[in-house]
Design a protein that fits this description.
The chain is α/β, with parallel strands linked by helices. 29% of the residues lie in helices and 30% in strands. It contains nine helices and 14 strands.
Length: 283
């Protein structure tokens, strides 16, 4: 179990995270907030790149600072932009990373072949990465993060810049990898986590706002989301969420505290609705 007890991180007079308490056991945990809300600060603390100003982070009851290399040995980390050698093939690059991580040579050889298969790069295992797409590079990144068979897999904005097909492939891969480990996924792309997250963690004003299942978070807007092609008929204060085209009509999706069922169709809220509603002053 990975536990944060009243963790605060200050940069001078600026508080990036304030009094955060969380528990991670198994499955996918999505950190969903706008840029600047503290997601990357939390990830850097969980990977020991920086340390809390106050509070403690524990792995199975022991402080990660005291565990030192023993804790880092259970982590797999994919930063938003990870460094790689364009002239290397996936197999060459993974051999290099395995050596850096002190994975024994024979074990590394077996693990590399296994991971290349898992991430779907068998056909290009010996091709130079200079011609790889962004999605293929990210799959190499997942493989390098999994070389030590981590109990905690931490992914920072892993689908940024990927096309829709690669994002779907990546979500499926993350879901399969979460069956026997903790996966912590940082993103501001709602569709990336709506179907795979066990729990969604949201910050506001640098404090923990919610830590719940996607369904429970969506329920917080139950009865408040509507759709209409005649927004002028809505007289109560409302928040416009999204628009879509339907048979030549512009359908506006909006949130309203008042009952608008007489002039608009009620709609089931989704995570994107909640995101836009909660962070309406920040997005």
């Amino acid at each position: 179990m990975l536990t944060l007890n009243n963790v605060t991180k200050n940069y001078g007079k600026f508080t990036a995270l304030d009094g955060i308490s969380l528990e991670f056991t198994g499955g996918v945990y999505a950190l969903l907030s706008p840029n600047g809300a503290g997601k990357t600060t939390l990830i850097k603390m969980l990977t020991t790149l920086i340390f809390p100003t106050s509070g403690e982070i524990l792995w199975n009851g022991d402080e990660i600072v005291k565990l030192d290399a023993r804790y880092r040995g259970v982590i797999g980390y994919l930063p938003q932009d990870f460094g790689y050698y364009r002239s290397h093939s996936p197999r060459e690059f993974l051999r290099y990373i395995a050596a850096v991580k002190c994975v024994p040579r024979d074990a590394a050889r077996r693990k590399i072949d296994e991971l290349i298969e898992v991430v779907g790069l068998s056909d290009v295992r010996d091709k130079k990465m200079r011609k790889f797409s962004g999605g293929m590079i990210q799959r190499v990144g997942i493989a390098q993060a999994m070389l030590n068979d981590p109990q905690i897999l931490i992914l920072d904005e892993p689908t940024a810049g990927l096309d829709p097909k690669e994002r779907v492939r990546f979500r499926n891969l993350i879901s399969s990898l979460s069956k026997d480990r903790i996966v912590i996924l940082s993103t501001h792309i709602v569709s990336d986590i709506e179907t795979i997250a066990s729990r969604v963690i949201m910050f506001r004003d640098h404090k923990l706002m919610t830590n719940d299942t996607p369904a429970a978070i969506c329920d917080s807007l139950a009865g408040k989301v509507y759709e209409t092609d005649n927004l002028a008929a809505i007289t109560a204060p409302y928040l416009a969420l999204t628009e879509r085209q339907d048979g030549g009509r512009t359908i506006t999706r909006f949130a309203c505290e008042s009952d608008c069922s007489a002039v608009a169709a009620a709609a089931a809220p989704n995570l994107e609705d909640v995101f836009l509603y909660v962070y309406r002053d920040a997005v």
